[in-house]
Amino acid sequence: MRVIAAMSGGVDSAVAAALAVEAGHDVTGVHLALSPDRQQLRSGSRGCCSVEDAHDARRVADALGIPFYVWDLAERFREDVVEDFVAEYAAGRTPNPCLRCNEKIKFSAVLDRAQALGFDAVVTGHHARLAGGELRRSVDAAKDQSYVLGVLTPEQLAGAAFPLGEMTKERVRELAAERGYAVAAKPDSHDICFIPDGDTRGFLARRLGEQPGPVVDALTGETVGTHGGAYGFTVGQRRGLGITTGDQRPRYVLGIEPVSRTVTVGTAEQAEVGEVRTALPTWAGPAPELPFTAEVQLRAHGAAVPCTVSAAGDGGLRIELGSPQRGVAPGQSAVLYAPDPVRGDRVLGQAAVDLAA
């Protein structure tokens, strides 16, 4: 096959590209320039897409003897990921920018361009498996990235390849070291790539400005503090609330109302939800017949819990949770899995959370 290897400059994408070459595919390496600042420097393991990352990707491509190009998708990334991120927080929701990047950039813009150029697939270093066109969890549960890939359609999955899904991260680093790649010991990137200093609240404040409002305790109805912007909070948050209550029980963010700029907090018991309503779902294969039982993962690093899925009446889903959960925020992705003890957990699809109660 003729394939594009998306090379971020990290160890995962380097090994994925190498495995594609060794499998006999006709491979072209592509680094995505997503930052408008071409000379942005990497800070430790925060962020990605820096000038150093581009150089690291090129060195691996040179070692593999494959063509290498840089595709400028900074404007598309700004519109589809960064602006979406800001708009979601302004509306009181909690988005996942990695999921949006996979949906709009890596498996939409990149795959569309690759196929237009005559390539058959895009190879990435994601830790997930594809088996018979079905998306499944990685064998390395600690590094599994199927959650942020749950938004992909069957057509997008048909044009994707994930060579690392059958191995652990430790093995990936061993393979990189065996091949002499300098990125073998490179730290994994973390946090939000376009906020390399990790200060999400500061980033949003610069974009949205000061928007003061009250913090209200749902237990008593009293105003227990003020804030400079509701966008600085997310449902389920416990630390950094800046409030004073009449008892010693910890408080959690229960809800964010952007129009009145009110942040509502409450006790751990009040923070628990047993049901989730979602927007329209995206299915990774044929749409399952409703209702059905499954497992749902509500956060990128959260545990999956049993659930029952039925129609919500507006095209969305009603997900009844088998056990109460905290920190379920509007805007998060509810990724549904069909447990399979023999072949691994299969992704059924996902939907954005509209309401949790």
Automatic annotation (TrEMBL):
GO terms for cellular component: cytoplasm. It is found in: Cytoplasm. CDD domains: MnmA_TRMU-like. It is an enzyme of class 2 (transferase). One of its GO terms (biological process) is methylation. Its main location: cytoplasm. Residues 143-145 are annotated as: Interaction with tRNA. Pfam families: tRNA_Me_trans, tRNA_Me_trans_C, tRNA_Me_trans_M. ATP binds at A6, M7, S8, G9, G10, V11, D12, S13, L32, G125. The keyword Transferase applies. Its EC number is 2.8.1.13. Transmembrane segments: none annotated. The active site is at C101 (nucleophile), C193 (cysteine persulfide intermediate). The record marks H126, Q332 as: Interaction with tRNA. Residues 202-266 form the tRNA-specific 2-thiouridylase MnmA-like central domain. Gene3D superfamilies: Adenine nucleotide alpha hydrolases-like domains (2.30.30.280), HUPs (3.40.50.620), Translation factors (2.40.30.10). One of its GO terms (molecular function) is tRNA-uridine 2-sulfurtransferase activity. Keywords: ATP-binding, Cytoplasm, Disulfide bond, Methyltransferase, Nucleotide-binding, RNA-binding, Transferase, tRNA processing, tRNA-binding. HAMAP family: tRNA_thiouridyl_MnmA. Catalyzes the 2-thiolation of uridine at the wobble position (U34) of tRNA, leading to the formation of s(2)U34. This is tRNA-specific 2-thiouridylase MnmA. It comes from Modestobacter roseus. The gene is mnmA.
